[in-house]
Amino acid sequence: MLREFVSNTLNEIDKLIAKKSVKFYFVLAVVMPILIGFAAVRIQSNDMITLPALSISFFIMNSFLLVVLPLFVFMSSSELFAGEWEKGSLFQVRPVTRMEIYLSKASAIAVLTFMQLVVVWALALITSTVLEKTIIWNEIGSMFISLLVSIVPLAAIVSLATFISQWFKNSPASLASGIFLYGLMAALPFAFPNLLHLFPTAYMDWYQQWLGNVNVLWLVQSFAYLFSFSSLFLTAGYYMFKAKEL
Fold it and tell me: How is the chain split into domains, by residue range?
């Protein structure tokens, strides 16, 4: 069962990588940190302003965690679920079960999302090193912690995206709805602050809670929320997928 699941996940990854839109996101993950770093170096060389390297690194990470990677997740989910439904290519191949199909698609999205984050992390460190002209080991440690803990809120977004895709039979509608809902969750707390921690969007910069003075109780509570959120929407999405006539 595990062998079939891994094989199916790799197949889903191959399908995504073959798409031009996915390649674009990986190019963006390579180019954007370099461009930001180059701009920062130019600003400092002109004595316009002194920019701390660590701030640049975290700015790059935040840009991807808050905007780029969620867009990638919703796009990939729309392609693998609603898009394949629209093309009539969403079918069951025995002995692979529907649960394995669903989880392999979700896993493929999660793996590629994390791969992009690793690329951004590495290039952000290079940018930081160039700015400081030396290797600062505590920055590497902080960035590595940020990389690892960011898996949790990203998993929640993947679960939500796969759930949303089950409601649609074409990828544009699924993608537009996912982006709209994500934007709504990010915007509503500005009008209703009490809603802030009810949405996973509030935890996209969750890694910052792990740096400096750590509030253990808050970390446990937020982890429990993100885990419950992921489990709920992953399960609900699977049951909707299972009920479909493929």
Answer: 2-243
